[in-house]
Design goal:
This protein is mainly α and about 240 residues long. It folds into four domains: about 5-50, no CATH class; about 65-135; about 145-190, no CATH class; about 220-245. It is about 60% helix and about 0% strand. The chain contains nine helices and two strands; from the N terminus they run ααββααααααα. The protein has helices at about 20-30, 40-50, 75-80, 90-105, 110-135, 140-160, 180-190, 190-210, 220-245, and strands at about 65, 70. The protein has a two-stranded antiparallel sheet with strand order 1-2. It binds flavin-adenine dinucleotide. Flavin-adenine dinucleotide binds near residues 83 and 92.
Length: about 240
């Protein structure tokens, strides 16, 4: 169960309860994938309350190797991310495979292998972290619209493959597409850019509130802000009306 931190206050208090009975009732009512037995719900709930909520961090690097230090990084050390697209381990394994291929190609010459490894894998690792974060939108309404778009696009692609491009979501995990291919497509189709802008705004709003950089909005302030926003529009409307007369 993944919950963006900015949504944590809005999820049901039942799921945050320390009482296994409350958690078991919550899952009985809301877990729709398949039914469990009574003991199953209770077992799940006991395990649930005995664990803390984990947080997933992200790692972004613009190089994955150093010839001077004779070292390289791969897997989560290079590109840890949320498991939203389920490609972290796949990419880690691919890093290892590509490293071995380069060792073969350059006859174990690390001065050649290490820079090439970085050149080849940095786009993949950063495509992974960015897709995992921004293929989905923190704004649930926008996310729902994107999901509908995916369904429509996939249907049209099925009917007219040469006219309508596939949806990037449907390409994740397919061998013939690298993550940077998918990133490129998602950027081209606009979803990634749109979601990134919204997600960054939501993350920043949350951060500045959580750290106390901004204070809670005061009731009077918003009326004033509204007046400032409406004033130029009203002035233009009056000017146009006067000119028309
Ligand atoms: C909930 C969840 C679901 C996921 N689902 C998927 C999925 O469906 N598909 C997918 O491809 N990926 C998935 N992933 C991602 C995947 O698990 C990781 O990308 C992958 O495990 C990374 O492997 P790694 O070897 O780079 O790092 P890790 O698996 O983190 O291995 C690092 C190891 O180093 C050890 N270590 C750390 N510090 C030290 C130290 N100082 N000395 C010695 N040892 C140390 C750690 O204990 C650990 O065993 C998921 C991740 C999570 C959290």
């Amino acid at each position: 169960m993944g919950v963006p931190r900015n949504q944590f206050d809005y999820i049901s208090p039942d799921v945050k309860s320390n009482d296994p009975k409350v958690v078991a009732e919550y899952f009985k009512a809301n877990f729709k994938a398949f039914a469990l037995t009574e003991e199953g719900y209770m077992d799940l709930a006991k395990q649930w309350v005995s664990q803390r909520w984990n947080r997933t961090g992200q790692v972004h690097c613009n190089r994955y190797s150093s010839v001077e230090c004779k070292l390289l990084i791969m897997g989560d050390a290079a590109h840890a991310t949320s498991p939203s697209i389920g490609m972290g381990m796949n990419t880690a394994l691919r890093d290892a495979q590509k490293f071995v291929e380069l060792l073969d190609k350059y006859d174990d010459d690390l001065d050649m292998v290490l820079p090439q490894y970085s050149t080849d894998r940095v786009p993949e690792g950063n495509a992974l972290t960015d897709l995992a974060l921004n293929l989905y939108c923190f704004d649930t309404k926008v996310g729902m619209r994107t999901m509908l778009g995916t369904v429509v696009r996939s249907g049209l692609h099925y009917l007219f493959p040469s006219i309508v491009d596939a949806d990037p979501n449907t390409l994740v995990g397919r061998q013939e597409y690298t993550l940077s291919d998918i990133y490129d497509k998602a950027t081209d189709q606009g979803a990634l850019t749109k979601h990134r802008a919204i997600n960054q705004r939501i993350r920043h709003d949350f951060f500045q509130r959580e750290t106390g950089m901004v204070k809670e909005e005061k009731a009077g302030g918003s009326v004033l802000k509204y007046a400032f926003a409406v004033a130029p529009v009203a002035t233009c409307a009056v000017a146009m009306f006067v000119n028309y007369q």
